[in-house]
Amino acid sequence: MHSQPHRVFSSARFAAISGNTFIGLTRLKIFYVLLLFALLLIGSSVFMARMTFQQEFQVLKDVALGAMSLFTSLLAVLATARLLPQDAEDRTIYTILAKPVSRFEYLAGKLSGVLTLLAVSLIAMSALFFVVLFLREQSVLSETARQMSGAPAEIQAEAVRAVRTAGFNSNLFSAIAVIYLKGCVLAAVTLLVSTFASTTIFTTITMAFVYFIGHLQSIAREYWLQTNSAGWLTKTFLAVVALLFPDLQIFNLIDDAVAGTAIPLTLLLKTIGLGAFYIVFYLVVSLALFFRKEL
Amino acid sequence: MTRIAGAIVALLLFGAVRWPIERHLTDTHRALGLRTLDFNLGLREQLGQLGFIAALSGFRSVVADALFIEAHVAWERTEWGRVLLLFRQTTTLQPRAVLFWEMAAWHMAWNASTAAMNDPRQPQLALRVKTAREYYDLGKDFLERGIRNNPERPELYEALGRLYRDKYEDHERAADCFARGAALPGARAYLKRFAAYELARAPGREQEAYRQLRALYDVGEAERTPALLRHLKELENKLAMPAQNRAP
Lengths: 295, 248
Description:
The complex is a heterodimer of chains A (295) and B (248). Chain A is 80% helix and 0% strand. By secondary structure, chain A is an all-alpha fold. Chain A is globular, with a radius of gyration of 23 Å. Chain B has 248 residues and is an all-alpha fold. In chain B, helix 5 packs antiparallel against helix 6, helix 6 packs antiparallel against helix 7 (154-168) and helix 8 runs antiparallel to helix 9. The termini of chain B are far apart. The interface between A and B is large, with 57 and 48 residues.
């Protein structure tokens, strides 16, 4: 009988682990609860503020993108935090690793499953958001056309342009891409923490700290690099914070995207590049920790 | 334990590799006018603990919206002091949202000033006028700060022009604001005309105003609005222009 030589990395094994992780996560009630909350919040944002159309669109976009960011981050942490402890509890990890599956394939597959889940849920949230925005925009446009029916063509065109500017713009895609990237980075860091954590709750609490410190990291970095009057202890502490934690403010472009500030493609690509760099590094360190872990 | 120590060392080394990249991206954000918010004690005092934490966690725009809606409620209750405080917080959190600057200025210079002028609790007209002018100044301050934060947005120049025109009746400054707005990309087509109309009302600038109005008239039918024709005729009479030099 002919047998194929064992490969260190098999895309089929990786895809199987990734697919199973994704299916496993979609069976969890927490996924549906989070997704439902997010969808409800995005859907209801249209009723939140009935002011002028500019104010309404501003609030709608802020609330929807805020909800997407919050729920994607929460999902990234909660879904990843339970992966390894759950597999250990169910004993599936022993069954998988007893087979010719490398620990790298296992970890990368698990992370890939979470990233797929994040992508699917973000697509669902984005779809609802765009539908809500489109419907409101169309309704405001027809309202504007009715109100301005007697006005000169120039004024009508200005009014329509104002509605379109306040409503949909391509920057929203950049904002959603960055929300996904932030979720991916958080998932990678959570995977790293869960390789040495003994419980899900420890990983989740640690990630809550990482989340807040990550948003402050840039301030610590600036003080570390620019402040000369601080003592060595303060500077050492700031340096450790700046070096140890990811800078999550880099991925915080939604506020500016909603405000109408253009996000250049080069900046978006650089941000994606840095995010990918983070994810690969955290995966490698996770593997280094997981490789020698006694199971 | 050795594994974790090794991981921490690796993370620190990774940090050393990535900080120049992060710094470069932060500088790029600042150069593009992104992340203009400065997290300091002043902001903490303005927002309160929860708002500050939310703003720090990447939900700055949501907090700004909540404060904006609160300001809207305060406006409905005509609590002008609270409206001012809430709009200061809102614009601090979202300095790139032009809408907030415009609304803040409108509430102060138009609504609060009118309320002050009609205040039945203040019998002295001089004091009512003084309060109303203070509200104009607050509106102007919002717009000027808005322009400093968004120098590329014509809407704020337009709003400042309207404030100078309608409240201060300073037509020269109004003309300057409209002209600066008109020069920016995305400006509304009527801003050029507005600048010329205001210049026509500014004493000593009639010749310049006439040149601008005539240039607009010569563009074609699209610019020959009733207001433009009226201003043009008024200036021709005021400047006693010979018939052959007048617009047909």
